[in-house]
Amino acid sequence: MAPQKSPDNDRIEAAKRKAAYRAVEEHFDSSMRFVGIGSGSTIVYGVEAIKDHLEKNPPPPNHMNWFVPTGWNSRKVIEEAGLLPIAFDSLPRETMIEVCFDGADEVDEELNCIKGGGACLFQEKLVACRSKKFVCIADYRKQQKRLLTNWPSIPIEVAPIAHASVLRELKLLGSPDAKLREHSVAKSGPIQTDQSFYIIDAPFKTLLSPLDVKNGSDGSGKDGQWDVEALAARIKMISGVLEVGLFHGMNGYEAQAAGLQGGQKPVAVYFGMEDGEISVSRAEEIKK
Ligand SMILES: O=C[C@H](O)[C@H](O)[C@H](O)COP(=O)(O)O
């Protein structure tokens, strides 16, 4: 018997697709040269929407649109859509990516994100930080007031040799149940990232936001209560950690206003909602 589709699943996929088309309509145009493409199931609709846009609005003569992948999976999606990939390390040195589109596992009210549920986070952060703006596409399950509300843990990319010591340090930071992510078939061992690193999933108490801290809450990790920024910085300090799946700090607008390049946080998140509507959370644009 053919596999049955659940109505819930259909609703989620429809929500992702609708959000992707709106995000692309508002942030992509055919004259762009370099566009970043994230990883996961949602970005597939982003690439579909870009392709559709390019078919309806062809680029100027002799103009090439290049798409920067964030890993093997993302490159495959770009190629299968007939778009042109360019490796991150082949970008001209002074060039910024005009926009990057990517998904997220959870997004809080201040647009901090958890990413890495699909084992991609390092290259996604590289691309986000080289982009003038990161535009996030998600469905209603990802929209939460605080991180670690619905999504259970923070993905952390680690050097294989260091995984046991990272697990020990995470325990000291308040995550006794952090686990190395393994394939569902146990004999296949740990999942490896595009960098041939491992992923640790570390559960913590629901995180405080930077605004909570500004308003006086203590997110320093005492009693295991962390805020996004303090925890991300602390985990990044552990030897053997390549990157943390917390996207926080500045967004592209803020980074450029400060004379820097891109930022980790999205400038806008497009959530496809259960009722078919789209909810958009936007960061304030900073006028020069
Ligand atoms: O590791 C994967 C990436 O960070 C994805 O962007 C994230 O997990 C969201 O994936 P999906 O669109 O499949 O929910």
UniProtKB/TrEMBL annotation:
Q: Determine the domain of life of the protein's source.
A: Eukaryota
Query: Carries keyword Cytoplasm?
Result: no
Q: In which pathway does it act?
A: Carbohydrate degradation; pentose phosphate pathway; D-ribose 5-phosphate from D-ribulose 5-phosphate (non-oxidative stage): step 1/1
**Gene Ontology molecular-function annotations:** ribose-5-phosphate isomerase activity
Q: Which reaction does it catalyse?
A: aldehydo-D-ribose 5-phosphate = D-ribulose 5-phosphate
One GO cellular component term of this record is: cytoplasm
A Gene Ontology biological process term: D-ribose metabolic process
Q: What CDD domains does the database record attribute to this sequence?
A: RPI_A (cd01398)
Manganese: is it a keyword of this entry?
no
Q: Which InterPro entries match?
A: NagB/RpiA_transferase-like, Ribose5P_isomerase_type_A
Q: Report keywords, A-Z.
A: Isomerase
The enzyme class is: isomerase
Q: What is its EC number?
A: 5.3.1.6
- Family (UniProt): Belongs to the ribose 5-phosphate isomerase family.
> What NCBIfam families does UniProt report for this protein, alphabetically?
rpiA (TIGR00021)
Q: What is this protein called?
A: Ribose-5-phosphate isomerase
Q: Which organism is it from?
A: Friedmanniomyces endolithicus
Name of the gene = RKI1_1
